[in-house]
Amino acid sequence: MTYDACAALVHDHDRDRWATARLAGPLAGRLHALYAFNLEIARIPSVVSEIALAEIRLQWWRDALDEIFSGRAPRRHEVVLPLAETIEAADLPRELFEALFDARSYDPHGPAFGDRPLFDAYLDGTAAGLMRLGVLSLGVADQETDLAAREAGHAAGAAALIRALPALYARGGDPIPTEDELVRNDLAEGRTPETLRKALKDIAEDALARLSAARRRKVDPAARPALFAGFRAEETLRPAARPGFEVFAQAEPSEFRRRAGLAARVLTGRW
After folding, report:
1. Spatial separation of the C-alpha atoms in residues 155 and 211, rounded to whole Å
2. Nearest-angstrom CA–CA distance, 176 and 111
3. Among the listed residues 252, 257, 256, the one whose alpha carbon sits nearest the alpha carbon of residue 236
4. Domain residues of the chain, as ranges?
């Protein structure tokens, strides 16, 4: 069993996490296995058009994880096998995976959240939960580092979702809870409604506060490769917190800029 297939999958579809995982040296495979698993379930709505089929595929992964935690032989799958090895080697907790599945159950339906608590719970279950698992996979289990991972992961998840908004709205999702109903024509024509800007400002400010709180915590340096996974959060959240933010005008940085940004973070240790 090798982690090569997981690393290749993450390299092709989540370059930021692929790059930061490599900072973990001999434990990079564990992070790649977790990130590949995350990709498998996060991409379900984009590769399966019907809600019922998406739910079946998500259940397949639930069953695969249930088999792992029940001590049965894992399924012969290029991601399941390395994931099972990672779960066993790092003694990862089942409840974080269950929370991730519960949160991802919203994805086939848009996702759509009726209120802010549901939205926050989604980020806690997905991005924050994944970062907490990443930290644990590196052998770090102290409370301060776990709290930092939860806060930083929430912020990273908010940033990633903001970057993904054009694609989510294009497929009919409604992930941002707003005070007033969004006008779909505005979204279809690439305009950012003011009620959406206000909601994003609140979300971005909250996420930046969480990130700042996480950075004030005393974390185990061994956890940094997992914490660095959110290294682009701030560059997304700060513009979103300003007046006039345009959802549909977000520019994807060049590969050079991404690498330089990560290198700067690594040199300063500021995840």
Report:
1. 6
2. 9
3. 252
4. 4-268
